[in-house]
Design brief:
By secondary structure, the protein is mainly α. It is built from 13 helices and no strands. Helix content is 63%, strand content 0%. The protein binds iron/sulfur cluster (SF4).
Length: 215
């Protein structure tokens, strides 16, 4: 069923080409900055960093904290996020960069990322999937809402890792599918399965228990 949902969404929306970034460090910066804000705000903050030539771990580390805060201000919570970017940049440099960290097993890299201040499960898994190409499914509030409404899980308050493992157990461990499926869930929930759902033209309406009950 999970795979069916993926296939119908993919057929309907097409490839989403995530994560929108020029390199892996930019993916990580985006994953940190997107906490509690919209992607359009993140784009403004990333643009500021890029325009001034600060989008590298070395430059972020040496950058004066107040200047960093002002550059990422559009993404909100700029005090916390500036600190998180510095912590992540230091970690990346001290660990030998992406190549060296890639050699760690999926879960030891996950644990390492989760041990960094301000990196929660969704951020860590976004970094693992989109920057390190590790087959770990990214769960977010959209994922919980959608699969709950479809009737594939019993509660929208399901534990993060429990849902991640259910999805991982029901789709092939294929990076392309993981990558696209998460992006497609976000797209579906922004266009159709909103807080107040727009069911009539939803591509997965025939699979949906919520709609069945409603109708
Ligand atoms: S039919 Fe409605 S509730 Fe079901 S997935 Fe689509 S938008 Fe969401």
């Amino acid at each position: 069923m999970f795979l069916n949902v993926y296939e119908v969404l993919f057929k309907f929306f097409g490839p989403q080409n995530w994560w929108p970034a020029d390199d892996r460090f930019e993916v990580c910066v985006g994953a940190i900055l997107t906490q509690n804000t919209s992607w359009s705000n993140v784009e403004k903050a990333i643009r500021n960093l890029k325009v001034h030539g600060y989008l590298s771990p070395e430059r972020i580390l040496e950058l004066d904290s107040d200047i960093l805060k002002s550059l990422i201000r559009p993404a909100g919570f700029y005090n916390q996020k500036a600190e998180r970017l510095k912590i992540f940049s230091r970690f990346l440099l001290e660990s030998g960069g992406f190549e060296s960290l890639s050699k760690l097993s999926n879960y030891s890299l996950r644990e390492t990322l989760l041990s960094l201040k301000g990196i929660g499960k969704e951020t860590a898994d976004s970094i693992l999937l989109y920057a390190f190409s590790k087959p770990i499914f990214v769960v977010d509030a959209y994922t919980k809402r959608l699969f709950y409404r479809l009737g594939l899980i019993d509660s929208e308050k399901i534990d993060y890792d429990k849902l991640r493992k259910i999805i991982e157990g029901n789709i092939p461990a294929d990076i392309t599918i993981y990558n696209e499926f998460h992006a497609l869930i976000v797209r579906e929930c922004k266009e159709f399965c909103r807080k107040k759902p727009v069911c009539e033209n939803c591509p997965i309406v025939r699979m949906c228990r919520f709609y069945e009950r409603k109708g």
